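Help: read this over?
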Amino acid sequence: MTQAFVVGSGPNGLVAAVTLARAGYAVTVVEAQSTVGGGVRSAELTVPGLIHDHCAAIHPLAMENPLLRSLNSDDGVGLEWLWPRVQCAHPLFRGARGGAALYRDVHATAQQFPTAHDRFWWERLFRPLASNFTKLASDILQPPLRLAQRQTDGHRWGDLLQFGVLAGLPAAATSRLLLSAEARALFAGVAAHAFRPLTSTGSSAVGMMLTTAAHASGWPFAKGGSQNITNALVHALEQSGGRIATDSPIRSLDDLPASTNDIIMLDTTPQAALGIIDASRRPPHVPAHVRAALSRYKYGPGVAVVNFAIDGEIPWTYQPAREAGSVHLGGSVRDIHAAEREINRGRLPERPFVLVTQQYVVDPSRSRGNLHPIDAYAHVPAGYVGNRSAIRGSSEQRHESALCASIENCIEQYAPGFRERIVAKKIRTPADVEHDNANFVGGNITTGANTLGGLLGRPRLSTNPYAVTGRSDGPQVYLCSAVTPPGAGAHGLCGFYAAQAALSR
């Protein structure tokens, strides 16, 4: 039986492993750490009994992966998806009751806006895309150059054209199609998931994709923690005959008993992939253009994360935020742009963009009585360690406390009394985030800079950006991490498409 080896056990590595195992390969997953899952793990990080997600918490594109859709609780793996009533909320005015909410229903979202113009245009922008999202996503989530090879009917080309034109715009320009501060801020807050200044070309792409996904299939999360996604994938792999080896760092291809016809999937950074290949005694050939693209791959800004245990719910002044799975704290379009511009210049903003996840609103299994877990992610410069000149003589612990206080202050402005409800907390700096997952270089959870070039050609512009080695006498090597299309997110689609590329080759 032909073998397949998968280096790294994040969602993409595991999805690739299951796909190959179901195709008849003898699959072995090797993981450097003692636990599997990469960015899709959960643990009791603050108080015993409270379940926090390590990184991936909300899963907007999970329903677009046919493999993940098939892993439901009926299979005995315990994976159950939950949807909050409000997919995300964007409080707008500090200490006031204003804001906007993103509902699954396009009409319900549009009707909250104060102007007829915005109500019309929100429906005009998102209803056609959401109604055909499954087919649309199957096109736009794959490598862009593959579109020319696909049989796509005229109606789908119309949707693709509308999406493509808007996605290519700066998010600031797309938001100006709307008039009210509420509608503009709601879109800009979703677009901020790209970690890009809102005036940069293509910064609308992530906002268009995630907003459409919210209206089409929602932003679900896994009951009991994202760890259950990993557990379900491990179960599916073992049911298909695959196995996993933990505490097994791979430094070269020589560490794998692979033969000529075998497949090797690397759920790693591009630089780590080249390092593993080059350290081998007889490294397979990496074409010069591939090597050049992988060597110059660039990363984006990072995150600092604070996990809180709170007594009771967060007292948001904007009421829909109390029913939201996630809450965007960024203020106006201008505020969001200023914050994202600063982190891309290597500076910490006075008011960083903060995303709060509060799965307890529909998942009491993560809580302990009235004690709830919440996680706050602040956008910061890559590898941010603070202003050393400003804190000369201070310990790293004091710097972390200042960063934590900044995040607390941000939440307090929109939820007065929040600080009084904190029972326990844990801060993770960008360095901690990278330590948890080596693919998050500098704390960059998007695993790459979402520039226009990064969106279209990560890690390189090709119909098969997953292939690393050329055709040779050795095993075929592929990248399957989130540096490949369609990019970041715990959807596993990078692994799914990489495995399909290997099978078709």
Residues 396-414 form the longest helix (19 residues). The mean pLDDT is 92. The radius of gyration is 22 Å.
